[in-house]
Design goal:
By secondary structure, the chain is an alpha/beta fold. Helix content is about 40%, strand content about 15%. The protein is built from nine helices and six strands. A six-stranded parallel beta sheet has the order 2-1-3-4-5-6, sandwiched between helices. Helix 2 (about 35-40) packs across helix 9, helix 3 crosses helix 4 (about 90-100) and helix 4 runs parallel beside helix 7. It is globular and about 50 Å long.
Length: about 240
């Protein structure tokens, strides 16, 4: 018996013989492939549901969305029913909050909110400064986001990426407006990288749940699950085991 198979069976046993279902919502400017390393770390221990937003990843031919409501509907459809937890990173944490608060299931899913301050304390994004690539990149960087330097140095790639950065920032503001006073009945686990300067006032995620809220800081930066997939996987599995118990 290999180690992965053993741990897979242990996790299922802890969950009453059923493999726990977890949805993963990526950061802005990223497709579902962003979670490739984390998915590899988790193996078969969970039912991994990677969300693909319109205009991103495999759905790159679709129009980008800048309003929260159609994104919530789209993501809820992708979940396909009951989920045990929703992991959202950066922009994905706000999408995850809105989806967790709106799905009709009991108990409510656990929300794992990574790499973002809570919307209750988030300042307004200066969307009027997004009229150029430089303005959009500066705004994203100030929020902790990262765009590879080689992409910005390649005119064709930069031109292709600019509308994604711009519209994802507009979408972020729409979610901030929608979720600023929103709560979910499920517990909230907050994750942040120790080197992520933009992840502040994390304890205020408690404003967004009528359940429990805990904060865990891991080594790493803003793109947490890309930089430390094994650490994030360990936390997720521990949370699912505790939830099942």
């Amino acid at each position: 018996m290999n180690d992965t198979s053993a741990r897979s069976r242990t996790t299922a046993a802890d969950n009453g013989g059923r493999t726990p279902i977890v949805a993963f919502i990526p950061p802005s400017c990223c497709g579902a492939g962003y979670f490739r390393g984390l998915r590899r770390e988790l193996g078969e221990r969970i039912d991994f549901r990677a969300v693909e937003l319109p205009g991103h990843g495999r759905r790159y031919r679709e129009a980008l969305l800048t309003r929260a409501e159609p994104v919530i509907a789209d993501v809820t459809t992708q979940l396909g029913g009951h989920v045990d937890a929703i992991y959202g990173e950066s922009l994905g944490s706000y999408i995850g909050l809105a989806v967790a608060a709106s799905v009709r299931q009991r108990p409510a899913p656990l929300l794992i909110a990574a790499s973002n301050p809570p919307p209750s304390v988030r300042e307004r994004i200066r969307t009027e400064e997004l009229g150029s690539l430089d303005g959009a990149v500066a705004t994203l960087t100030a929020m902790g986001g990262e765009i590879p330097a080689e992409v910005l140095r390649t005119p064709e790639l930069a031109e292709r990426l600019y509308p994604v950065i711009r519209d994802d920032l507009r979408l972020s503001q729409s979610f901030i407006d929608l979720t600023r006073f929103m709560t979910t009945a499920g517990d909230v686990q907050v994750l942040a990288g120790a080197g992520d300067h933009a992840s502040v006032r994390l304890e205020s995620w408690a404003d967004h749940t009528t359940g429990r809220c805990e904060v865990t800081v891991l080594p790493g930066g803003h793109l947490l699950s890309a930089g430390d997939p094994s650490g994030v996987a360990e936390v997720i599995l521990a949370l699912l085991t505790a939830r099942a118990s």
